[in-house]
Amino acid sequence: MTINWRWYRFDEFDVATLYAYLKLRVDVFVVEQTCPYPELDDFDQASLHLLGTDAAGAIVACLRLLPPEAKYAEPSIGRVIVTPAARGSGAGHTLMAEALRCTEERYPGQGNRIGAQARLQRFYAAHGFEVSGEPYLEDGIEHVDMLRASP
Prior knowledge:
single chain; alpha+beta; 4-stranded antiparallel sheet
């Protein structure tokens, strides 16, 4: 699967792309994960957003990068999604590699802290993240904070 990657500031989204992106996030984080909480949390406006699209222009992977001090002292990758059609293709690893590259470029030497779903610890560990706290429940799903030191 060929994926085209593009970073957006919130004010760069056209209406159709923003709608597709937010709909995908609701489809995954609210519907698929059976987690009825407000998906729109006021962090989007200050974040950078990475979207991966297939040849037809459909979003197949995405995430957002929060700047330092938005949620944690460090920059923070979050709202990571790979659609069912792209799962198992390596898209998630490519998505994370690009996010970490951008983090280091924009915020050199600051590392990255995430609130990871506990079931995904191994995935994030493969990208240099280490558990940095005790597990906790967020919206009914077990999470754990993880930190990746700057390379």
